[in-house]
Amino acid sequence: MSKGMSIHIGINEIDENKYGSKAKLKNPENDASTMAGIAEAQGFDVSATLLTKEATSEHVTAALKDAASQLTAGDILMLTYSGHGSQVPDKNGDEPDGKDETLVLFDRQFVDDELYALFGTFPEDVRILMLSDSCHSGTVARDLSLSLNEATLERAFDTSKPAEARARVRALPSDAQFRNYQRDQTLYDSIQKSLPALDQQEIKADVLLISGCQDNQTASDGTGTNGLFTQTLLRTWKNGAFQGTYSRLHRQIVKAMPAYQTPNLFQSGKSTPGFLAQTPFSI
């Protein structure tokens, strides 16, 4: 009988000592808790829910290594991330735009090379479902070529509303991004140089990403209790009443989202059509 494990990450603010800014968001912790609730209701073993200060590179790495050690062929991991997305300069030549994309964890940025290296430790035919409610998350933002600036962010949302009424976006502010990389450049460079390029990593697991937006878009933190992507996913899921496949779930979410934020569906690793055709969140 197949086994399901889940890991949920939600980061409302980051370590000001490391980034020079808390870059506060309102809803990522709610997103993580909500997705943990879905996982539990579907029979997953919720092995870790890492909220803000607990969502460190050490804890995320440990949680993924633990899952890789326990899951076998036919099992499934649900990994959800809600928080800021960002980038650092590429040092191992695997990014056409010269930038590696990152998940902005509490203590430091988690480079996409690290994430894919950890995916590579999972046994063959394990399914990994990743839901990422963050900016530039279309392919875990591996091909991001957009440089963020204030004008870009303003265009993404309804500028007829007062600034305080507009939703926050989940992109690490450029000044915090610069300060963090300037401070820890040696660390990020060494991480990338110690790992094989993405196209040289062998991933035998079947990885499916449903993201909050395309690589060149920003994701809204939402005006309610969840991020816009997570909120739309919940409405589409209808407390389990949704009927269909991952492909259909993605299409229905896209239809319900505004034009400035288009969720993506992306496969890597073994990339089997069968995974796409499965009932969402089923073990």
Automatic annotation (TrEMBL):
Record-level Gene Ontology MF annotations: cysteine-type endopeptidase activity
Gene Ontology annotations of biological process type: proteolysis
Residues of the Peptidase C14 caspase domain: 14-275
Pfam families xrefs: Peptidase_C14
Protein's name in the database: Caspase domain-containing protein
PANTHER family assigned to the protein according to its UniProt record, in alphabetical order: METACASPASE-1 (PTHR48104:SF30), METACASPASE-4 (PTHR48104)
A Gene Ontology term for the protein's cellular component: cytoplasm
Source organism (scientific name): Streptomyces yunnanensis
Extent of the signal sequence: none
